[in-house]
Amino acid sequence: MANKTDGNGTTTTDKKKKKKAKRIDFPMADAVYTDADGKVV
Q1: Residue from 24, 5, 23 nearest 15 by CA
Q2: What's the chain's average pLDDT?
Q3: Sign of the dihedral defined by the CA atoms of residues 8, 18, 25, 32, in that order
Q4: How far apart are the C-alpha atoms of 3 and 8, rounded to whole Å?
Q5: Exposed, middle or buried: residue 16 (CB in 10 Å: 0-12, 13-18, 19+)?
Q6: DSSP assignment of the chain, as one string?
Q7: Contact 13/21 with Cβ under 8 angstroms?
Q8: Which one, of 1, 7, 4, 2, lies nearest residue 21 by Cα?
Q9: 4-28: average pLDDT
Q10: Is the pTM of this model over 0.70?
Q11: Do residues 26 and 2 lie in contact, with contact meaning Cβ atoms separated by under 8 Å?
């Protein structure tokens, strides 16, 4: 069950649990933004 995401990385299929994209900083890589499912946007 894959959630669709908009440009802001927020889920559009589950509006009760709407989350903004989380920023993850990796020490050896560039910052990666993920959607609520943890998929890289």
Answers
A1: 5
A2: 63
A3: negative
A4: 13
A5: exposed
A6: -PPPB-TTS-BSS-STT--PPEEE--TTS--EEE-TTS-B-
A7: no
A8: 7
A9: 61
A10: no
A11: no
Residue with tokens 């440009």: 7
CA dihedral 26, 28, 29, 33 (to 10 degrees): 0
Q: What size, in residues, is the chain?
A: 41
Taking residues 10-25, what's their average pLDDT?
62
- Residue 14 has which token pair? 């589950």
Residue 15 amino acid letter: K
Beta carbons of 37 and 2 less than 8 angstroms apart: yes
